[in-house]
Amino acid sequence: MSKRILVVEDQPDGRQIIRDMLAGTGYEIAEAENGEEALTAIAKQRPDLILMDIQLPIMDGYTATRLIKTDPALRSIPIIAVTSYAPPLGRDRLQRRICRLKTETSFERCRM
Questions:
Q1: What is the pTM assigned to this prediction?
Q2: CA gap 51, 57 in Å, rounded
Q3: What angle is formed at CA 24 by the lines to CA 18 and CA 28, rounded to 5 degrees?
Q4: High-pLDDT (> 90) share of the chain, %
Q5: How many whole angstroms from its chain centre is CA 82?
Q6: How far apart are the C-alpha atoms of 25 and 33, rounded to whole Å?
Q7: Beta-bridge mates of residue 6
Q8: Judging by beta carbons within 10 Å of its beta carbon (0-12, 13-18, 19+), is residue 28 exposed, middle or buried?
Q9: Pairing of strands 28-32, 4-8
Q10: What confidence category does residue 100 fall into, taking pLDDT thresholds of 50, 70 and 90?
Q11: Residue 12 and residue 85: Cα distance in Å, rounded?
Q12: Contacts of 97 by beta carbon, 8 Å cutoff, 6+ apart
């Protein structure tokens, strides 16, 4: 059985870049274009890893991550935040928000 990665990215070019990076690794790749589609995809076939864009239409990556991490059946799935959005000071804001999410969902202290 192959490992499954869910790529949550609204931009087709972004999804293609990630597919290209993972080509030949043996991972099965599933895709979703927003947080709502991600939750549906997770319910159908639980992934081993989620690559989650932050700025998404319909439901953003922060909200989808919070919902996943507060569900006891799903909280063990690792989620890696992926974003091309990087305004000045954006990285610090992103790190603080991720740390807050980790704290809210009973994870160990955030160290970045």
A1: 0.78
A2: 16
A3: 65
A4: 62
A5: 7
A6: 22
A7: 30, 50
A8: middle
A9: parallel
A10: low
A11: 15
A12: 62
| Domain made up of 4-86: CATH architecture | 3-Layer(aba) Sandwich (3.40)
> CA dihedral in degrees (57, 54, 78, 42; nearest 10)?
0
User: Which residues touch 42 (CB under 8 Å, ≥6 apart)?
Assistant: 6, 50, 68, 74, 77
- Both tokens assigned to 105: 């969902």
pLDDT at 110 over 50: no
Region at 89 (left for phi over 0; alpha for psi -120 to 50; beta for the rest): left
Angle at 59 between CA 33 and CA 103, to 5 degrees: 115
Q: CB atoms < 10 A from the CB of 18, how many?
A: 18
How many whole angstroms separate alpha carbon 54 and alpha carbon 61?
A: 4
Note the pLDDT of residue 81: 86
Q: What are 3-55's pLDDT values in tens digits?
A: 999 999 999 999 999 999 998 889 999 999 999 999 999 999 999 999 999 88
